[in-house]
User: Which sequence fits this backbone?
């Protein structure tokens, strides 16, 4: 079968399954399997048969079941890195790249003299944020924590795949795996979807991505309540906390930060005008003096 004939049939199947951009997804699956690009797919229109044809059809059928395209391809592009993803790990979103941009701006204003500069990525998932920061600042010590064994496995694989040697990914809840370390910067894209809203998400998310990586509790704010009051115990004086936010969560998170004594609070809007990134500075001395120079 010619590639363009297969493309047409695949597009029709995906359209029948309610895929919004069926043509693009069919193109990406076929080009991925042929190890070529979109332009070559159309210009060369190669003959496809045998095992390769069966494999492409199988992947298209998976997409027709609304499995995320990123899981099918096995990766997603994030801030110039190829991040491996699959069942059990959240697919990195474009909004999170904005968090990376703001974190890089903050770190760039610090004088990183040696490898003692430490960054923590809470709820690290695939490790995408931690990996971007490790790439931008190779002399920093970068840690990521997550309660999901599957996510930590993917994060470690992504560190190896992207040749990052300064990464430490640890399984456990929030600060627990790094309780003896003080950080200069803490970032997080925590679960922030309201529990009742998950059922209304598109099938690719609600039926395939790990619920624990989505569910932020009844009002979507559970993780912020867990993170913000404890930050002063793990963030050096003058260090920064940077968080991704859900829709209409900016003011509530800002109030939590004010109650916790954080300063220089700033909310950054995304391209849709939504308060998406929260930034605050720790103006408190770390409570446990014995860990200041950890």
Assistant:
């Amino acid at each position: 079968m010619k590639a363009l004939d297969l493309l047409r049939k695949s597009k029709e199947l995906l359209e029948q399954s309610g895929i919004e951009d069926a043509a693009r997804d069919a193109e990406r699956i076929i080009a991925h399997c042929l190890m070529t690009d979109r332009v070559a797919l159309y210009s060369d229109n190669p003959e496809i048969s045998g095992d390769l044809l069966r494999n492409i059809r199988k992947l298209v059928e998976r997409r027709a079941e609304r499995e995320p395209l990123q899981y099918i391809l096995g990766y997603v592009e994030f801030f110039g890195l190829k991040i491996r993803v699959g069942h059990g790990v959240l697919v990195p979103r474009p909004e999170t790249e904005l968090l990376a941009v703001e974190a890089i701006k903050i770190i760039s204003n610090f004088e990183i003299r040696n490898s003692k500069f430490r960054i923590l990525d809470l709820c690290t998932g695939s490790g995408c944020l931690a990996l971007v920061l490790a790439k931008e600042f190779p002399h920093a010590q970068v840690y990521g924590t997550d309660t999901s064994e599957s996510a930590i496995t993917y994060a470690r694989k992504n560190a190896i795949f992207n040749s990052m040697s300064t990464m430490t990914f640890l399984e456990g809840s929030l600060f627990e795996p790094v309780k003896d370390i003080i950080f200069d910067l803490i970032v997080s894209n925590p679960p922030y979807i309201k529990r009742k809203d998950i059922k209304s998400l598109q099938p690719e998310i609600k039926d395939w991505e790990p619920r624990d990586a989505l569910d932020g509790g009844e009002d979507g704010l559970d993780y912020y309540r867990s993170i913000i009051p404890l930050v002063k115990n793990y963030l050096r004086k003058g260090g920064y906390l940077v968080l991704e936010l859900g829709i209409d969560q900016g003011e509530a998170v800002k109030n939590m930060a004010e109650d916790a004594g954080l300063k220089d609070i700033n909310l950054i809007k995304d391209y849709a005008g939504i308060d998406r990134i929260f930034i605050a500075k720790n103006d408190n001395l770390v409570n446990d003096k014995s860990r200041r120079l950890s």
User: Anything to note?
Assistant: The chain is about 40% helix and 20% strand. Residues 16 and 262 are 51 Å apart (CA to CA).
